[in-house]
Amino acid sequence: MSTIRTVGTPPDARGAGGRRSARTRTHPRARRTWRQSLRRDWQLYSLAVLPLLFFAVFRYLPMIGNVIAFRRFHPGGSMFGDEWVGLRYFKLFWHDPTFWDVFTNTLVMGLLTLIFCFPMPIVLALLLNEVRSRRFKRLVQSVSYLPHFLSTVIVAGIVMEFLAADGPVNQALHHLGHSPILFIQQPGWFRSIYVSSELWQTVGWGTILYLAALTSIDDNLYEAARIDGANRWKQTWHVTLPGIRPTMVTLLVLNIGTFMAVGFEKILLLYNPLTYPTADVLSTYLYRMGVVSNNFSYAAAIGLFESAIGLVLIVTANRISRRTVGTSLW
């Protein structure tokens, strides 16, 4: 009696009752190469050409010029300097007392700007979020946004006109029986003037980002908080602020990264030799050393030192943010 065999079907591939198993082997989808992605979405990638060119030409290409911080540069000579001097210019500003005065002013101005100009957009956004009248809310938004669209020259001119000896502020002081104050000529007033004008110009524009972040918070969270008996303050503390925390941390890291780059244009327009003791910062000091005095190598060394500090600050802030809050830029 012959034995019948099943050919082509392995024993472990049969299911119950001698039937073939219905399982199929799945193959992972092959990843597209960058050439395939570029060929498929070239229209989208083409939009990034101009921004990349801008950063390449105006941000990365000029970094080659930092080599003159280590070489003696003379106007009209070689583009990359004539003689290698090593760390000579770094040692010069390291032992220059004027540099450390300017460095201290930069730290103080940057710290004051960060303390006052960073939280105020958050406060304004939270207050506007509680406003129920749309007309009043739009009015406040329009009034607070407007200074951002004014150029720095116009803002500096407005500040100088208001604080002039015969300006509106001194006229009001005169009616109150107070003698005029020369705000622009007194070093003690400069930091307050700068921070106040910076706050007036930037607070409205910064509020836009936080108002956009507030719209992403789920309304069910507020409803659950009200059911639990939370008042408006507790809802803000436990729902609103955690909802906009990623935006807050991102902007804080960016502000810390530009901590040393205190506004050059506004300070240059507002300060004068009388206010140098409190108004002169690294950016204006670099302008006078490099452009006015033609000491480009010395200015490049100071600028490279400032950039290194900014890099350390932003990397440190990003790492602390990632470990403590869980949000970071990279």
Q: How would you summarize the topology of this molecule?
A:
Layout: H1 34-40, H2 42-46, H3 49-60, E1 71-72, E2 83-84, H4 88-94, H5 97-117, H6 119-130, H7 134-145, H8 152-162, H9 168-175, H10 187-214, H11 219-227, H12 232-243, H13 245-257, H14 264-270, H15 276-279, H16 282-292, H17 296-324
Antiparallel strand pairs: 1-2
Helix pairs in contact: 4-17, 5-10, 6-10, 7-10, 8-14, 13-17, 16-17
Question: Explain this structure to me?
Answer:
This protein is mainly α and 330 residues long. 63% of the residues lie in helices and 1% in strands. The chain is built from 17 helices and 2 strands. It has helices at residues 34-40, 42-46, 49-60, 88-94, 97-117, 119-130, 134-145, 152-162, 168-175, 187-214, 219-227, 232-243, 245-257, 264-270, 276-279, 282-292, 296-324, and strands at 71-72, 83-84. The chain has a two-stranded antiparallel ribbon. Helix 6 packs across helix 10 (187-214) and helix 7 crosses helix 10 (187-214). The longest helix is centred in the last third of the chain and has 29 residues, at 296-324. Mean pLDDT is 84; it is low at 1-28.
The number of helical elements comes to 17
The 3D shape can be described as: globular
* Element pattern in H and E: HHHEEHHHHHHHHHHHHHH
Global structural class: mainly alpha
Task: Note the main sheet.
Answer: 2 strands, antiparallel
The helix content, as a percent range, equals 55-70%
Numbering strands along the chain, what is their spatial order in the largest sheet?
1-2
Contiguous runs where pLDDT drops below 50 for at least 5 residues: 1-28
How much is the average pLDDT?
84
Radius of gyration: 31 Å
Distance between the termini: 76 Å
Report the count of strand segments. 2
Instruction: Assess the beta-strand content as a share of residues.
Output: under 5%
